[in-house]
Amino acid sequence: MIVWLNGTHGAGKTTTAVLVQQLIPGSRVFDAEKVGETLMDISPGLPETDNFQHWPPWRPLVVETARRVLDYAGGTLVMPMTVLVEEYWREIGAGLARHGVPVRHFVLHADRNTLRGRIAGDTVTGPDSPFRLRYLEPYAEAARTWLHAEAEVVDTTHLTPAQAARRIADAVAGPEPGPSGARRGGDGGRPPTGRPDA
Fold first, then answer.
1. For the chain, where are the alpha helices, taking DSSP H only?
2. Backbone dihedral angles phi then psi of residue 177, each to the nearest 5 degrees
C-alpha cells in the first residue's frame, strides 16, 4: 500500500510523513523528490523547467520505483509529495493501479493565513521561501477544482504534525473510504474553508 501525503509546499508533509511511518508497522518513507533530483543530475541537462514534475519521465519513474520497492520489501510506503496537476496525479494513480498497488491519498490542508505563517517561520528552507509562496494559489485552485474531491482531507490548521499523523494512521487502520474514493478527515465532513515538494 501507498499512503500518499499531498498538499502545498510548506503544509508539513515531510515532517508528518516521518511521524506517520512511526505509527504504521512495516512502513517506510519514500520521497519521490529524489527521483526528480536524479533527473536533475543528468548532464547535459534535460530541457529547462521550473518543476521537474513537468519532465515526462518523472511520473512513470515514481510509479516504477514505488512498485518495485513494495515488491521487494512489502509493507507500506509513506510518500510525501506535492502533486497539484490533475493530469499528473491521474497518470501516477493509473500506473500504480496497473500494478495492483492500493493508494490512500491524503491532503494536508490549512487555510491560507496559516500556510503563510508556516512558510514565514520555516527554519529549514528559510523564511518566506519564494518557491513555496508561489504555489499557494495553484494549491487553492487545485483544491477547489479536483484535489479535495480526490483525497481524504486532513485540515491541519489547528493540528500539530503529531496529531495529523495520528489521524492519518488511524484512518489507514480503519475502514476503506466510501465509493467516491474520498473521505474527509479532521473537519467533521465539512469542506475545508524546480522543486515540487518540501
1. 13-23, 33-40, 58-73, 86-98, 112-120, 130-134, 136-142, 161-173
2. -65, 165
- The answer to whether residues 143 and 109 touch, using CB atoms and an 8 Å cutoff, is yes
Q: Which of these, 106, 34, 41, 20, lies nearest to 69 by C-alpha position? A: 34
Strand partners, 103: 2
pTM, rounded to two decimals: 0.87
CA end-to-end distance (rounded Å), the chain: 22
- Alpha-carbon distance of 162 to 140, in angstroms, equals 24
> What's the half-sphere exposure (Cβ side, CA atoms, 13 Å) at 94?
8
Give the model confidence (pLDDT) of 30-70 as tens digits: 999 999 999 999 999 999 999 999 999 999 999 999 999 99
**Residue 119 near residue 10 (C-beta atoms within 8 A):** yes
- Helix/strand number for the chain, H first, E second: 8, 5
pLDDT in tens, 67-114: 999 999 999 999 999 999 999 999 999 999 999 999 999 999 999 999
